[in-house]
Amino acid sequence: MFLLLFLFATVVGFRSGRWRRGDLNLLDEWGLGGRRFGTIITWFLLGGDLYTAYTFIAVPALVFGAGAMGFFAVPYTIVVFPIMYLVMPRLWAVSKKNNYVTTADFVRGRYQSRGLALAVAITGILATMPYIALQLVGIQAVLTVMGITGKGILLHDLPLIIAFAVLAIYTFVSGLRAPALTAIIKDVLVYITIIVAIVLISSNLGGFGHIFQVAGKALAAKKGALILSPKLDLAFATLAIGSAFALLLYPHVVTGTLAAKSARTVQRNAALLPLYSIALAFIALLGYMAIAAGIHTKVTSLVVPLLFLKEFPAWFAGFAFAAIAIGALVPASIMSIAAANLFTRNIYREYFVKDCTPKQEADVAKIVSLVVKAGAVFFVVVLPLTYAINLQLLGGMWILQTMPAIMFALYTRWFHRTALLIGWLVGMVLGTGMALAEHFKSSLFPFHLGSTVLLAYAGVYAVLVNIVVAVVLTWVFNAMKLSKGEDETTQKDYQVHQEASGS
Amino acid sequence: MNPSSTGKRGWLWLLLLPFIGVGWPGFYTSVNPEVWGFPKFYWYPILWIVLTGIITWIVYGLTSGAGGTEQ
C-alpha cells in the first residue's frame, strides 16, 4: 500500500513538468511555475508548504511530552493568516512588477544595498537547510516503524536515500510544478487519514472526554500539564506570534506565494488556508491519543507512527504512512527550489557570473537544488539528529531577524539600509547567543527584569532589539547624511488592486 | 485607486480580531466549560480557526472592487 501510493506520487511528480507547459529553461518558469498558479493549486502548494511532515511528527510529539505548551501551534496557525493577508499580497505585487524571484531581490531593489540583500539571502539559505533535513526525519520515522530499514550503516539509510534521490530528480526535471501537483495527492491522503484517525481512534479509546482525562493524569505525573500554567502565558503567546511572522519570511513560503497568479489569489488563500489549521489541531491531539493508547517511546518522532500502527488495520497504517512520507517530499522539494533561487539570484549572479544568461541561471538553480538535498541527506545520515533539530530551532530565530528588512520595507522606506543591516547582525548574534546559553534545550529564554523572570521566545527578544537598533541607527545615519540609496520601486508597485488594468 | 478604496481599507482592522481572540492564552486557560469532552483550552482556539477563516473571507469581500460598503 505504502509503496503503491509512493510510486503514484513519483509518477505525477515527473509528468508535472508538462502541465501548463512553460519554458523550463527560465528561472521564472522552473522556480516559480511561471507565476500562473490559481487559487486552488496555490492552496494545495502553500498547504504542503506550511504544514510539513515534520509538523505532523513534531507537534503531536511535543503535545505527547509537554501537553498544553505544544498546542501553541494552533494560535500560531491562526494569527499567521491575518498577517499573510496584509503583507504577502504587497510582496507579490511588487515582485511581479519588478520581476523579483526572492525576498533578497526585493531588498536589493528597495534599498540599492548588496550587503542587505546578501544578508537576507544567506539567512534564508541557512534557515532552510536544517528544515529540509528535518523533513527526512518524517520519512525516517515511518520507515523505522514499518521495519523497512536494513542493517549496517549504509543499508540502514538506503530506503531514505532512494526516496530523496527520486525527489531530487523530479524537482530537477519539473521545477515547482512537481510539488504543486504532488501536494494534491498528499492532501487527499492526509485529510482521509485525519478523519479516520479522529473517528476510529477516538472511539477505540472511549471518546475525547476520556482521552483528555487519561492524558491529564499522565501529564501531571511528568512535568507537563493539560491546561497551560499562567507562568507560561508569555512564552506561549510569543512563540505563537513570533513563529507566525517567521513562517511568512521563510524562502519556501515566499516562493509558494510568488507562484500565485495574482495578489487576490494570495488574499483568497489567506482566507481558505485556515482549513488546514483545523486538521493541524486534531493532528496535535494525536499526542493525547497516543498517551491514552499507552504508547511508550523515548524517540518522540515515533509517537505518531507507533500510534497508527497500533490503532489502524495494517493496510490503512500503510496508507497513513504514505501520507506522511509524501507530506515530507512536497515541502522538501519547495524548500530546495527556494534555496536554489536565493543562491542563484543573489549569490551566483550577484558575485560570480554577473552577465549570466537566463538559461544559465535556471541551470545553476537546478543543480543547486540537487546539492541542497544531498546536503540534507548527508546531515541526517551522518550527523546525530540533534544537530538538525538545534539548527532548525536557530533557523526560526534567524529568519525572524529579516523581518524589519523585508516586512517593514513593504510599507515604508523610512529605515536606513545600513541601520537595518546592523540591526539584523545584532539580532542574529543575540538569538544564537540565547539559544547557546540555554544549551538548545528550548527556544525560550528567561529574561531577568529585577526580581521578575520573563520567559519568552528568544527569537522575539532578538527581533525587538533588532528593531530598536534599526530605529536608533536610522536617526543617527540620517543625521550624518549617509546615503540612503536609490529605491527602484514606486508606491504604485505595492498596490494589490492593480491587476484589473491587465499586467 | 478609486476614491472609495481608502474608506474600504478601514475594514482591514477586522483582521486584528484573531489576535485579540487567541493572542493571549490567559483568556482561555481553563477546563470549563467543556464541549464534547474538550476542555475550553482546546475547543476555544479550534473555534477561532473557523472564525478567522470567516473574518478573512468577509474582509476579502468588503475590500474588493464591487459590493463594498463605505465606512
Shape annotation of chain A: globular
Q: Please give the share of residues in helix of chain B.
A: 40-55%
N-to-C terminal Cα separation of chain A, in Å?
46 Å
N- and C-termini, Cα separation of chain B? 17 Å
- Tally of individual helices of chain A: 22
Average pLDDT rating of chain A? 82
Order of adjacent strands in the largest pleated sheet of chain A: 1-2
Domain module tally of chain A? 1
Question: Quick one: overall form of chain B?
Answer: elongated
Largest sheet of chain B: none
* Structural category of chain B: mainly alpha
Major sheet details of chain A: 2 strands, antiparallel
The fraction of residues assigned to DSSP E strands of chain B is: under 5%
Determine the number of helices of chain B (DSSP H or I, runs of at least 4 residues): 3
CATH architectural category of chain A? Up-down Bundle
**SSE class of chain A:** mainly alpha
- Specify the oligomeric state: heterodimer
According to DSSP, the number of beta strands of chain B is: 0
Classify the beta-strand content of chain A into a percent band: under 5%
Rounded to an integer, what's the Rg of chain B over CA atoms?
Answer: 16 Å
Pick out the low-confidence regions of chain A.
Answer: 499-503
What can you tell me about this protein's structure?
The complex is a heterodimer of chains A (503) and B (71). Chain A has 503 residues and is mainly alpha-helical. Chain A has 22 helices and two strands. Chain A has one domain (2-385): Sodium/glucose cotransporter (Up-down Bundle). Chain A has a two-stranded antiparallel ribbon. In chain A, strand 1 (444-449) and strand 2 (452-457) form a beta hairpin. In chain A, helix 1 packs antiparallel against helix 10, helix 7 (114-146) crosses helix 18 (358-382) and helix 9 (158-174) crosses helix 17. The model of chain A is unreliable at 499-503 (pLDDT under 50). With 71 residues, chain B is mainly alpha-helical. Chain B has one domain (5-62). The two termini of chain B are 17 Å apart. Chains A and B meet through helix 5, helix 11, helix 12, helix 14 and helix 15 of A and helix 2 and helix 3 of B.
